[in-house]
Design brief:
With 630 residues, the chain is of the alpha+beta class. Helix content is 36%, strand content 27%. It is built from 20 helices and 32 strands. The chain has a six-stranded mixed sheet, with helices on both faces. It has a six-stranded antiparallel beta barrel with strand order 7-9-15-12-11-16. β19 and β20 (322-332) form a beta hairpin. α12 packs across α14 (474-486) and α16 (528-535) crosses α17 (539-551). The longest helix has 21 residues, at 432-452. It is elongated. 40% of the residues are buried.
Length: 630
Amino acid sequence: MIFATAGHVDHGKTTLIQAITGVDTTHLPEEKKRGMTIDLGYAYWPQSDGSSLGFVDVPGHEKFLSNMLAGIGGIEHVLLVVACDDGVMAQTREHLAILRLIGRPEITVVLTKADGVEPARIEEVRQQAAQLLVSQGWQSVPLFVTAATTEEGIAPLRDYLLSVHQSQSAHQHHYSRQNSYHEKLNQRFRLAIDRVFTVKGAGVVVTGTALAGSICVGDTLWFTGSEQTVRVRGLHAQNRPAGHAQAGQRIALNIVGDISKEQVSRGDWLLSQQPMSAAVKVLVEIETDAPLQNWQSLHIHHAASHITGRISLLNSLTDTPVLAELVLDRPLWLVENDRLILRDISARKTLAGARVINLNSPRRGKRQPEFLDWLSQLARANTHAENLASHLPRGALSLSHFAWARQLTESQLNHLLIKMDAIIAGDWVLSKHNAVLAEQRILQILAEYHEKHPDQLGVGKARLKRMALPALDETLVYTLFNRLLERKALKQTYGSLHLPEHGLAFTAEQVSLWLKAEPYFRAEAWWVRDLATQMGEDKDVVRHLLRTAAQLGIIIAIVPDRYYHRQRIQQFADLIRQYYQDNGGITAMNFRDEFNIGRKLAIQILEFFNRTGFTRRKSDLHVLRDEGMF
C-alpha cells in the first residue's frame, strides 16, 4: 500500500516519514541544503510478512505544486500534515482542495510539532483541521498528535497505518474503495513515469505508481515517449525485488529495448498495449473552486504530466454536471475517468478539477441540447455497462476505441458484450434497434435502384454499401447484408444483391421468344432496337423481354437498352482480374485489343464495371474494387 503526504511547507512531512520508517526521503543536494522537499521523495517500511508500506513525500511549497500533483496520482490514502505551531495554512487548504478535486482519497490527519506548544493550542489546531475537513466533504477523519523529535504519538500512528495496510477491507467505510481497487487491478496496466535513471550493468530504470493492472518480469510494454515496445527485464515493487507488481504499488522497472535515458521524461507512460492515440481535445465534467471563463488559458496537471491548454465551457457553471471541452497544447495519454487539476495560467491558484468522460470531442454541435443531455448521461454512468448502453443508441461504436477509453482487457470486453443486445462485426458493435434502421435503409435504397434501373439485376455489395450506408464500416454492413439474406428479405444472384420480388419469370410467350433471341447473344452486344429489327419483332415487346431476362440474370445491360450475355460479362471480368493481378489494372486500349472490339464499346464495358463497383478508375487504369461481384 502507498501513503502520500500533503500539507503546508515546513510542517514536518519529511521528518514524520523518517520517524515512521527511519528513511530520510530528501535526495537532492539542494533539498538537504534548504531543509525542504523540492521533488518527490520515497520511503518504505518493510513488514515481517514480506509486504511493505510505501510513502510518497510531496513538496509543500507552492512553487513545487506540480511535483506534489505528480506524487499523489493513483494514491488511495493521504496523510494530511498540520504543524501545531502554524495551524492550518494556505497550502494546507489548497492541498486538501486538490485531494477533493482528484476524487477524495481517504485521509488521516497528523498534527506535528506538538512538543513545542501548549495543550490548548493543540486542541485549537485539532478544531481547525476538523472544520476544514468537514467543509471539504470529509467526515470523521482519524487524527493523530505527534512530535517526531520526542517520538510522541509515532507508535500509535504506526500501529494505525499498519492496520490500514493489513485489513483495509475490514471496515465498512473501506468497502467501496476496495471495489474500486479491484476494478483498477483488473484493467490494463498503466504506469506514469515520474523518475528515470540508469543502473550500471542493468541500463534504464523508470519508476512510478501503477495506476491500474498488473505486470510481470518478461512482459512487453508500450513506451509512449518514443512510441515503441520495451521489455521488462527486472522490477522492484515497494522497494523490493519482485517477479510481479500491480496497481497501487510503487514500482521500479528495468526496461530494455532500443531506448536510452535521454528518451524518457517525467509524464511518459508505460502501457500494457499500444494506445489508440493521445488526446488533444477531451470532454470533461468540471468541479469548480473558482469562477472559470470560456476559453481561459490554464495549467493542466494529469498524473506526472504538466501542460497548458484552454477550457471551452459547454454549459453554465450553475448546471449539474458542469460540462466542458479541454483543448490541450500538448497531447496527453488520457482515458475515461482520469482526473485532472486545472490551475490559473499564472500557476498561483487551483481553479477546478476535471474528470474525463469522453475522448472524442466532435467538431460541431457540442452545445446542442441533445449532445449535452448525452454527455450528462455519460457523466452519471457508474459502470462499463451503463457507459456502453449510453453509446449504443448513437450509432456504430468501435470496440477497440471503447476498450481503450475504458481500459478494458479482452476478457472484460467480451463479458460485457455478452450482456448487450447488439450486432457485433469485427471491431464494431451496433445496437439491434440501429441495425434494423440500417437494414430498412438498405432495402429502401435497393427498391429505388430497381425502380430507376429495371433492366439491371441488382447491385454489388460494395456499391450498395456506398449507396446506402457510406459511413458505416464495411464489415458491419456486410454482416447486415448477411442477416437480410438469411431472412430472405434480400436475394443474391450472380454476385448482385436485389429484392426477392425483382427476379421475375418469363411468361409462356416470352419463353418461346427468348429461345429465338438467346442465340444472338453468343458473343455480341445487342441494342434493343437492332435485335427487334433482326428478329422481326415489336421493339417494346423485345425491350420487355430483355428487361425480364436481365432481372433473371441471364443478360446484363452495359448501358440502357444494350445487353451482353452474362457468360460474356464473366469473360470480361476474368480478364480484368488477370490484368489486375499481373499489371495492377487494365486500360481501355488493353481491353479493346484483347477482345478485338471498338474503342467506344470497350469504354462502355469498362465504365459499366466501374458503375457496378467491380472496378474503379485510377488514372488510365481500371483496378479491382469488389472482386467477388462477378
